[in-house]
Amino acid sequence: MTKQPTNNSPEIEHEMAMFSLARPGNILLDVYLRNRENPGAITYLHPHLKKHLQKTFGVMIYHEQLMDIIKDLSGLSAEDVNQIRKSLGKKDKYVIDYWFEKFSVRCLNNPSFIHECNRKPDDIINDLWKYFYENAIYQIWGRYVTYALNNQEKVISRKTIDNVFEAAKIEEVISQFIELKNEGDKLTAVCPFHKGGTTSLNIRVDENRYHCSICNKSGNPVNFIMEFMEVRYPDALIYLADKYDIEIEFLDMESKIAHTIQPEPDTIARLNTKLEFIKIYKTKLLINNLPEEALYLRGREKQLLIEIENLKNQKSAPL
Ligand SMILES: [Zn+2]
What we know:
It is a single chain. By secondary structure, this protein is of the alpha+beta class. It has 3 domains: 10-150, no CATH class; 172-219, Alpha-Beta Complex (DNA Primase, Chain A), CATH 3.90.580; 264-316. The chain contains 15 helices and 7 strands. It has a 5-stranded antiparallel sheet with strand order 2-3-4-5-6. Strands 1-7 form a two-stranded antiparallel sheet. A hairpin with a 2-residue loop joins strand 2 and strand 3. Helix 5 runs antiparallel to helix 6. The protein is globular, with a radius of gyration of 21 Å. The two termini are 36 Å apart. The relative contact order is 0.10. It binds zinc ion. Residues 191, 193-194, 200, 212, 214-215, 217 line the site of zinc ion.
């Protein structure tokens, strides 16, 4: 997997951060914007977090930040830290508890951790772990955005898509977000796509699909992610590839067309996503009242609209 690029301009870094935080829900976006306005007021669960999170205004966005923090606090090996990262993303309670225990013991035996604790070390460790766990989803998006911005003219290879479809298990994907219930020999869940609260979502493990008997929503693991997280096909693929540790292979547009992997170039979709993001951001700006930023984004928005128009014209022009 590609590493998070570190030599981007502050504007790109900011765009990446905003993009990451805007996608899964806007909870941390507010924190990020507030902190960016007033960096002096940022508080950290442990002083050591500052050097890892300063660049993203106290918000943990990237996998690499999570891993660096765990390594720094506990002194665990890179391999162990990677296992922790994976277990947090998968939300398997047994595995998570195992790593929590290990992390906890190592922190308590790390003089540099203990030395700088301004509260009871056990309490800090508990809070940190909760923070890691609750933020796991954002780091996945951070990674996705890194991919998306660095591979705008590229597409995901057929091989990667096949590997994702082969690895993703419907029950694992859904249970990451909603509790599954055993009803006789059936697996069910409360359907997240309509209001009601009955267990109308049937999980068909043998077919690797879900189906709601009330709203009729159905599909495979990729469809579920698209529907549930309100993301596009490539985004869902990257999300699942990350979850299942599948190497993501990108092809450039030309080889994609040559192999006719997918009929539609997704550049327009990507640009539209950016536009949507800017709209979300602008709503935030109105609330936060940052006129200069708004001006910068208005320029970006215009530019994106022009790019989209150009692409559409290119597409409709005869070859
Ligand atoms: Zn439903």
